[in-house]
Amino acid sequence: MQGKIALITGATAGFGEACALTFAAAGYHLIITGRRKERLQELQQQLEKTYHIHVKPLAFDVRDRAAVNEALGSLDDSWRRVDVLVNNAGLALDLSPVDEGNPDDWDTMLDTNVKGLLYMSKAVIPWMKARKQGQIVNIGSTAAKTVYAKGNVYCASKAAVDALTQGMRIDLLPYNIKVTAVHPGAAETEFSLVRFKGDESKAKDVYKGFTPLSAKDVADVVFYCCSLPPHVCINDLVLTPTAQANAYYIHR
């Protein structure tokens, strides 16, 4: 199998699915992960048929360290030549004052957004170190930069992604591995529907009165960061709709 390989987590929807489409269109072979096995298989068939690439679907939850290690450990050497790891799997749950928050929601956000990213990175980094090349893109959020009311734990989880990205960048300098954080603002995906646990009315209200980012907008930026010359690394990038200044200020 010739050509570059990208591993994308949370590929069943939103930014992850859009990244899969964008990298596939550029000729990358893909390892796509997510919890929804049928959706992964549908995406595999679509990408292989459309772009004539190889796609390896791996269904597991990034929160489960044993499942991460088992799934990635099952890959043979031809798939371990990962050029790009996109740590995209993440979510927000609810909007509540910290004293009214649901600890189960906290666990889900922290285990997915922070620990899942760590588990995936720890599994893939040795492959990149051995080849002394590669790039890791961690999907953060404007919530990493500006804390907003009732966003407490979600904001903390994305601030952790920001800090981890900086730490990874330093630790991996001797191995010629790029590490990039991409922090999107308001983007109309399943994000708000998940946050409000299926309440479509609340989810739609988030994007009223302005034009939000699309998943493709974010995927295009991620791909750009991965398409630069070997000596160029974007360390930290924030993108928002034109109507949004940060996680708090949106002109509607």
From TrEMBL:
Keyword presence, Oxidoreductase: yes
GO molecular function terms noted in the UniProt entry: oxidoreductase activity, acting on the CH-OH group of donors, NAD or NADP as acceptor
Alphabetized PROSITE patterns for the sequence: ADH_SHORT
Listed Pfam families: adh_short
Keyword terms, alphabetized: Oxidoreductase
tRNA processing keyword on record: no
Protein name, as recorded: Short-chain dehydrogenase
Species this protein is from: Chitinophaga cymbidii
